[in-house]
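Morning F.,

Quick status update on the modeling queue. The single chain you submitted on Monday has been processed. Sequence for confirmation:
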Amino acid sequence: QSTSSASAWTAVWRRALVLLLALGLVAGLGLWGVWGLGHWLVVADPLESARAIVVLSGRVPFRAMEAASMYRQGWAPEVWVSTPAYTAEEATLDRLGVKIVREEVYNREVLQRLGVPMRAIHVFTQGVQNTAQEVRLIARELERTGGGDRVILVTSFNVDGEKTQG
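Structure tokens below.
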């Protein structure tokens, strides 16, 4: 009876090992698929002349630096700067009389120091909370100005200012 008991436990362990290996394989394939999907979703169209170069919120000063470089290369006659929505922390500091320097102020200064004339910089006054709101604001601005249907969005840069995917 001990031989059949040992044999039963061996069969259970064998099944458990096979199940673990199968789950590991499925998990690995799933991760590989998600990684591959991310690369498939990245679209890298070649640059074309546009109405404006738009500095989306975040990654100060790197996005503004790239926008200034594109401006100097002649890709667009203007640089538009997104303004993040006023946060609760900023509102509280403002009520306390503490001077804060907002992201769009830094971006405008970076653009100017890198050769973009003030007349070519347009800072949005409406604050936005996310990229979807930024896109809607840009579309409204294009419609309002009637100046074309294309902008260049400056999105992701690493801390060295080198382009990253996305």
